[in-house]
Design brief:
The protein is α+β, with helices and mostly antiparallel strands and 120 residues long. The chain is built from 4 helices and 5 strands.
Length: 120
Amino acid sequence: MSKQVVHFTVDFAVNEGKLAEFESTARAMTVGSQKEHGTIGYEWCFSKDRKQCRLLESYVDANAVLAHLSGPVVQEWVPKIQQYSSIGRFEVYGDPGPKATEMLQEIGAEIFEHRIGLSR
């Protein structure tokens, strides 16, 4: 498995009248992700009108990505948040590993595996 950091960006459109439920679920997902080994960052960013939201996620490596995808945040909480929103663009930056790549592609994620640049 790759030992490079992997980032996700996931865009959500919040369903009309479901902002409170969306935010409550997002908070629960954040708490759960903080408990997962290998999660570096998990941040929700809302548009000014709070109808759009972008989730920024970072993981230490492919092992952490696979653990996240197999864990309770994705397995239990993602179906709940989809009751209050729809997922638009979902991008992955870095190599999430073969098993996670398969899982991510099944749910429509676009993977940008190769990088050129400076990382610290």
